[in-house]
């Protein structure tokens, strides 16, 4: 697919959560239709997509049928099984490509890749057994954090090590999975850059946002981030470097720690990112449309920001605040239509315009 | 339905064109699902709605099934057959209600209603036959315009009378339908007010926009309209008067002619309105969300405007300009995904933010 996707074209999206939902809406603005593939029944994205396939990631026939019905494939989360991608790849273009996925699916590969670009990361060591862990703790010191190499998100698959007594329980928590120990970085702020790269190699970045996490889950993103001019341009250049190195097509989220000396890459996400939701009410073109434009082979949009915004996630019972939020001036409410409220579950978010 | 519609609730929309499409997207932001009812196959709104019923307006069984699957019913166009509404009304709440529909479905009833509120309209006379027409032309003078009382939109069902020679052809063009002759109003601008009323009677209006029509079709809306403070507040008060008189729930479009002495009501549309599309990029809460909020029994949103905007419709071959528009700074492109380009067909619109 070298030409831009024509009006009425179909974008296949792997994963039907809130990100797929908002991607579908953005695709509709550009005259496209979406087909969601998700193993769970009634995915939130299904409410705003023309087609939904409900089938396991291993269902060879369903995957082939899905591919036959779409023009291009993208995804809303990075932990798609390799076998699924192997099956889809010869059938339709997958954007962003396999390289970005393989890098971001494995925390060790990701850190080695970032270092290979001359970027800074937290100190780390691979851990494949209890002996590795003891050696890694010696090397990096405590506190440190042990993480599974694969399939972690929102603080899951992680164990903090503050004292020697935490070492064995941390290893046990990995349940035998390959892991990586990360040293702590002392930082003043967490920021993220949401950047996009188009099929022709053009790059566009949104203004960096400043993130507040609670219990491993993003609570709030504020734009503009408190950065000086040098840090702001460094953050964007660094994101562009990653995009170019991966020959990337689509939107990428880059989480960074800000220290007095440097910007340290925490992690990258090869997809639209929770910390980019503010763009829905702060920009003419939001991150979801930017991603769809890239995936469809359209020119990237103008990511200029017209307002200061605070994005706040609505997690679990936060949903009870919606009636009040709906009445609040300068607040835009975005709900995901999830059938069940659960503690720690992202139910929606609000963007508050700061005048 | 006196309480607000709960998360996951289903809004039934009669009509699946671009207005239904953008209503569906707005409903998804508030955690609702939509079910579109439209006689034509593959309606544009179907791309972003969870369910679509394709059936004629006369299909009693399909209508009953549709009603059983939704919590509340709204519509994207006013020319819904009376029998359809008669069937649906006892089954589910219809918002806005029958009164607004019956007033706006008939140009004569509409003008009489507006006059009864003390509002100004163009001079008019009912025309039920050639003799009526001759008498009405005598009374109102020429030029004048003959319109069918019912089912007209985008300049259809209209014939202009400039000289006596136009009278008979104008009558013939009505094909025997009851009509209304309207005198011309000499105005400086055409503006419209997009206003909403909630279930509790609260009213909110967006800033009036100034419209440019070409060949009976809206070409452009600019906000702010060139109005003095008095005209601006009069326009909004007048819209509120109409909303209250109709005990209205939802968004209403009011088209006005501006003369040195007065605001003259051209017509009202009991639905979201093409001249309100600018709100998508000029406000935190757009007209589509405002309508869904009202229909769902939620509080109305803050309609404050954060930017000056020019909305331009993309009609027929204007679609060829999309590649260039996608590259233009401060332009947001909205396409409707219609399968076929036809002359005079609205294919999309763009909102240009003016800085």
UniProtKB/TrEMBL annotation, chains A, B:
Transmembrane segments: none annotated. InterPro entries: ATP-grasp (IPR011761), ATP-grasp_carboxylate-amine (IPR003135), ATP_grasp_subdomain_1 (IPR013815), PreATP-grasp_dom_sf (IPR016185), PurK (IPR005875), PurK_C (IPR040686), PurT/PurK_preATP-grasp (IPR054350), Rudment_hybrid_motif (IPR011054). Its EC number is 6.3.4.18. It comes from the Bacteria. Keywords: ATP-binding, Ligase, Nucleotide-binding, Purine biosynthesis. Pathway: Purine metabolism; IMP biosynthesis via de novo pathway; 5-amino-1-(5-phospho-D-ribosyl)imidazole-4-carboxylate from 5-amino-1-(5-phospho-D-ribosyl)imidazole (N5-CAIR route): step 1/2. ATP binds at residues 107, 147, 152-158, 182-185, 190, 213, 266-267. Gene3D superfamilies: 3.40.50.20, ATP-grasp fold, A domain, ATP-grasp fold, B domain. Homodimer. HAMAP family: PurK (MF_01928). This is N5-carboxyaminoimidazole ribonucleotide synthase. It comes from Roseinatronobacter thiooxidans. The lineage of its organism: Bacteria, Pseudomonadati, Pseudomonadota, Alphaproteobacteria, Rhodobacterales.
